[in-house]
Amino acid sequence: MRVKLVSIGNSKGIHILSSFLKQCGIEDEIDIDMKGQRITIDPVKKRPRAGWNEAFSAMHAQNDDVPLMNGIADSFDTGWEWK
């Protein structure tokens, strides 16, 4: 698809079809980079812990949030005073 550059202040820009943005997972921000003579546009990666609350809730609902090894943490707790 060929598109024209448009003036945006002292810069140039392009219009990107909303269907393209949706397919690429681009919402509000992008990462833009140059590779050789090519400009690459990538969606901003989600926060590293995005979705953890939902995942932990699902684990709890399935009773899958029990410690893997019981008592290990307790053996290192000696000498601590909890207030």
What does this structure look like?
With 83 residues, the chain is of the alpha+beta class. The chain has a domain at 6-43: Pemi-like Protein 1, Chain: D, CATH 2.10.260. It has three helices and four strands. The protein has helices at 18-24, 52-61, 72-75; strands at residues 6-8, 11-13, 30-35, 38-43. Strands 1-2 form a two-stranded antiparallel sheet. Strands 3-4 form a two-stranded antiparallel sheet. A hairpin with a 2-residue loop joins strand 1 and strand 2 (11-13).
The number of helical elements comes to 3
Q: Overall 3D geometry?
A: elongated
CATH class of the domain at 6-43: Mainly Beta
Q: What is the alpha-carbon Rg in Å?
A: 24 Å
Cα-to-Cα separation, first versus last residue: 66 Å
How do the helices and strands follow one another from N- to C-terminus?
EEHEEHH
Number of strands: 4
Biggest β-sheet strands, sense, barrel? 2 strands, antiparallel
> From the 3D coordinates, which CATH architecture of the domain at 6-43 would you assign?
Ribbon
User: Beta fraction of the residues?
Assistant: 15-25%
Q: CATH fold name of the domain at 6-43, please?
A: Pemi-like Protein 1, Chain: D
Structural class: alpha+beta
Strand order of the largest sheet: 1-2
